[in-house]
Structures are given as structure tokens and as C-alpha cells.
Amino acid sequence: MPRVLVVDDDATVAEVVDRYLRNAGFDVDRAADGPAALRAAEATAPDLVVLDLMLPGLDGIEVCRRLRERAPVPVIMLTARGEEADRIAGLECGADDYVTKPFSPRELTLRVRSVLRRASEPSPAGSGVLRAGTLVIDAAARTATRHGVPLGLTVREFDLLVFLLRHPGRALTRAELLEQVWGWTYGDPSTVTVHIRRLREKIEDDPTAPRLLVTVWGVGYRYDPPGAADPDPARGPLATDA
């Protein structure tokens, strides 16, 4: 059974999440602060971490960063407030998803299932090897390298990159990407924006002047294959900011 590490200093929240996840068939470990979370992750190698943003010792942002340095374990961040800055902070540190408190334990369980399913299955965009210059992605094996060096992509970053590469030259809206990659029929568009920014930092020669993942004003984003002709102006002006 998949093992989930639940990290929250609120004992009541942790207990409720623990109970719902166990009822759904998961093994669950718990930690109440940042240092304990890192020790537990090292000892048990969880398949996914449910991580509160506000923690004693080390906050969730720092814990997430350290977890991502060790291994590409999926992380779902719990944010205590609905402010956009909190959500973006969680995504930028490498979290694959977030849930805002107060939340439905049933919804969180569904999010856990969704992230784990995407982490264990081949990319929903299909299998095969994709190439973009020195970037090589094996969709079936879920591996990505650039200049022969493995890229530390999160589950969502990988799926987003594969989906974009399988639709070259097509302007894709944030709403479409949320639905196709995240499986959300509604959601915060900044989720896509942050993931595009993180991908650019990992695959572009100059993330401030992207050539592969470009912004289409008023629409969303587009993948332009290396060496492709200048884009058709009719498809929309380009921008280098997210």
C-alpha cells in the first residue's frame, strides 16, 4: 500500500487526515514539526507527503525544499490561508498540489490518489521519447534529461512538459492546461504560471528570455520546437514573462 507522511502540528487535523487516508487504504506516518518530518521521510521513504505550510522548527517551505533535494517525492501542501502568495510559495518550493484550510478530508484523499496515480503511471499524453534540442524526455519511464543530466521534475512539472511537447506550435490556455494536466475543471490559473516558470528555470538557456515555452498574450503558453520558424503573428504576440 502507498505510504503517506502527514505533517501538521495541529493534532486534530492530523488525526482526521490520518483516519481518512487509512480508511482509503494508505499506510500513514505522522510528524508534528519540520525536523521530525525530515527524519520521518528519511526513515520511511514515503510515496507522498501531505505537508502543512506553517510548522514549528522548520516551516513547510523549507521542509519541501529539503525533501525535493533528496528525492522527487510528491508533496501536497496545506495552506492555512487562501491568499495567493501562500499558494504560490508552496508551488514554487516544488509542491505538486495544494489544499487550502479549512478543507474537506474527502477532497484531500482524492488529491492524494490523483497525484500518486500520475506519479506511478506513464504520462497521460502518451509514451515514447520526446526531444527538444538537448532535452530528452522518456514519457513511459518518466525520466527527463538535459545535456545528459537528469532533471529533478515534480510529477506535475513532468506531465506539463510532456503535454506541451506533444502539442508543438499550439497556444494552450491556462484553463485547458489545468484540465488536461491537473484534471481540474476549475482552479487557480497561477498554478500553471508557477509551473511554467519552474520548467523554464530547468530547461531554458535563459529563463528570462524563453525560446521553448513562450507566453502568448491573452491566451496562455506555447511550445516552440528548436529551430522552428518565427511564429505566425496571427497566433498572438509573445512575451517572456509568465
From TrEMBL:
<dbReference type="GO" id="GO:0005829">
    <property type="term" value="C:cytosol"/>
</dbReference>
<keyword id="KW-0597">Phosphoprotein</keyword>
<dbReference type="Pfam" id="PF00072">
    <property type="entry name" value="Response_reg"/>
</dbReference>
<dbReference type="GO" id="GO:0032993">
    <property type="term" value="C:protein-DNA complex"/>
</dbReference>
<keyword id="KW-0805">Transcription regulation</keyword>
<dbReference type="InterPro" id="IPR001789">
    <property type="entry name" value="Sig_transdc_resp-reg_receiver"/>
</dbReference>
<feature type="DNA-binding region" description="OmpR/PhoB-type">
    <location>
        <begin position="127"/>
        <end position="225"/>
    </location>
</feature>
<dbReference type="InterPro" id="IPR011006">
    <property type="entry name" value="CheY-like_superfamily"/>
</dbReference>
<dbReference type="InterPro" id="IPR001867">
    <property type="entry name" value="OmpR/PhoB-type_DNA-bd"/>
</dbReference>
<dbReference type="InterPro" id="IPR016032">
    <property type="entry name" value="Sig_transdc_resp-reg_C-effctor"/>
</dbReference>
<feature type="modified residue" description="4-aspartylphosphate">
    <location>
        <position position="52"/>
    </location>
</feature>
<keyword id="KW-0902">Two-component regulatory system</keyword>
<dbReference type="GO" id="GO:0006355">
    <property type="term" value="P:regulation of DNA-templated transcription"/>
</dbReference>
<feature type="domain" description="OmpR/PhoB-type">
    <location>
        <begin position="127"/>
        <end position="225"/>
    </location>
</feature>
<protein>
    <submittedName>
        <fullName>DNA-binding response regulator</fullName>
    </submittedName>
</protein>
<dbReference type="InterPro" id="IPR039420">
    <property type="entry name" value="WalR-like"/>
</dbReference>
<keyword id="KW-0238">DNA-binding</keyword>
<dbReference type="GO" id="GO:0000156">
    <property type="term" value="F:phosphorelay response regulator activity"/>
</dbReference>
<dbReference type="InterPro" id="IPR036388">
    <property type="entry name" value="WH-like_DNA-bd_sf"/>
</dbReference>
<dbReference type="Pfam" id="PF00486">
    <property type="entry name" value="Trans_reg_C"/>
</dbReference>
<feature type="domain" description="Response regulatory">
    <location>
        <begin position="3"/>
        <end position="116"/>
    </location>
</feature>
<dbReference type="GO" id="GO:0000976">
    <property type="term" value="F:transcription cis-regulatory region binding"/>
</dbReference>
<keyword id="KW-0804">Transcription</keyword>
